[in-house]
Design brief:
mainly alpha, 3-stranded antiparallel sheet, 3 strands, globular, WH_DNA-bd_sf, transcription regulation, DNA binding
Length: about 160
């Protein structure tokens, strides 16, 4: 298909779904990530702490998935967080080869504060959509993730 005067092809990148998803995430996260950094955390550390609020005692493999951090990089981050007193690492009582990660009292207090701030930030963002579309966007994104992870999307 060529790009003729009669039927111009819209520009690729600004209309490409993956670009739009990444750009929306970047724009929506920018302000809150600045807030996270103002609390003395790096964004990957915040992601780990947010995950541990829901599932304290997670294994590194589980954290890597939900924090969206490659496992070997995450291990280094967790060691640094342990040194700073934000998390502790303990052997799994059922399998000593596995390590579980827990929030310390200091880490939990900071994580709870930031989760509360994140909830407020999210509500402000969702309110900016007219007609309650913010909740629909979350449902659509959850459905997209489910389809991608389940392999339901067919290629070609």
């Amino acid at each position: 298909m060529n790009n003729s005067v009669d039927a111009p092809t819209p520009p690729f990148v600004p209309n490409y779904l993956l670009y739009l998803l990444a750009a929306a995430s970047e724009a929506a996260s920018e302000r809150f990530h600045a807030h996270v950094r103002s609390k003395g955390l790096r964004v990957p550390e915040w992601r780990v702490m947010a995950c541990l609020i829901d599932t304290d005692g997670s294994m590194v493999t589980e954290l890597a998935r939900y924090a969206m951090i490659e496992q070997s990089r995450l291990t280094k981050i967790i060691i640094q967080m342990d040194t700073r007193g934000l998390v502790s690492r303990r052997s799994d009582p059922k399998d000593g080869r596995r390590v579980r990660v827990f929030l310390t009292p200091q880490g939990r207090a900071l994580a709870e504060e930031l989760v509360a701030d994140a909830r407020i930030d999210e509500q402000e963002l969702l309110k900016s959509f007219q007609g309650g579309q913010g909740d629909h966007i979350k449902d659509t994104l959850r459905a997209l993730i489910w389809h991608l992870e389940s392999g339901d999307l067919k290629q070609g």
